[in-house]
Input
Amino acid sequence: MQSGRVPFGVSTSRAGAAVQGFTLPAQESLERSTFESGVEALSVDLPVATTTLSLFVKAGTRYEDRQTAGAASFLKHLAYKGSADKSALRLVRDLEHVGASMHVTVDREHIAYHITGLRPSAAHDIPLAVMAETLRAVMQPTLHEYEVASVRPIVIHDAQLRAQDGELSLRDRLHAEAFVDSGISRPSQATEGNASQRTPQQLHRFVSDRYTSGPNVRIVGTGIEHSTLTTAFSRLLGAKDSLKLRAPYFELRSLAPLPALSSSLQNAASAYPKTPVIIRNEDDGPARLILGFKGPSLSSKDLLALQLFAEVLGTGSVDVFNPGRLANRSSRLGRVLNTSYAFVDSYSDGGVFGVYAAAEDGNAGSLLSTVNKEVRAAAESLSDDDVSRARNLLQSRFSSLSSSRALYATELASRGLTVRALSDAASSLSRSDIQSAVSSALSSAPIIVARGDVTGLRL
Output
């Protein structure tokens, strides 16, 4: 097993200093190890009374195909069912016995299993052993027919709720248009259609493809010493054959291939980046749209710069306090804009930068024009005061990660940077750095997705 401290890559000379009303952690030592199996372990020993162990598997929705679409959403709920190592009852009872709790999240990149319990000590190490064994168990789902059938209504219900959420639907549609040749184009959760079709056999294929490769698995511990973390998982996930599946108990048969996409669809997909796209999903209600552009990946130096610019643009409603440029400017233009927020969604190999906005009835055309002009105007007229305010807002968000261990673990797993490192990196960015990153994003073809009363919608 290879081990070593990970350099932050940015100065930590101001560790522990107060920053505009909030305090960042004084010491954050990120350590990383790689087991013989290829599984990576990262840890930050936060001075807290509880330990959170997070298991990240590169089995998010981007890795699904047309035969396994929706698998990640099923596995999220099947984590609480039976496995080759523990029955559903034992899994829950073991965690309850040591006062630990588990929750599971799914996004485009990962399925993440988070367990929080008492911090281990020399005299009290049973909770850690139970937590580690449970994370190993969820990687061996039995996937019995009755188990899959029991969670299917839950997955379908979640899909229905998501379909009714106008903002999330537009975000999914934006990804579908921006990443037509990539798995990132897939929705971040199952749809009602594919949820009703998934079988245990198809789920097993997905698990066997994604859960059995060491480089696809990452363990993140917060509030725990690194040596304690690696010792706990060395036997469970450290050996070369430790990821071999021992379940489910049915024979895996080959699946018949689905027909390839038609040539016309393939041609349309390859031609997309050359032209803007407008998707007009007519339905009742006011105009809602996203103006999006291709953005940076998780490893890009431009990611933090665009996140700062998103803070400059702001979020909220013109009817409530909002320090952002978009809502304030729209207010002076006659309340074209009702609600807006800027966002950056980044992944290992790409990303999108966008602005969501909603308008009063009949203002779709003015809404898009206003958003487009104000985004570009904000970039050109960016002031040092804008940057200072945005930096404080973003650093405050980073600081709050320490109180949400699952979110903190996600940042560690995705970027490999601590809260202190992210904050210092944001502090080092200048106004010209932000303008350069924004200019690069806005130089790509705009992607426009809309729904509601889209009369007059044009760029």
Notes: The two ends are 55 Å apart (CA to CA). Confidence is low (pLDDT under 50) at residues 1-25, 261-275, 316-322.
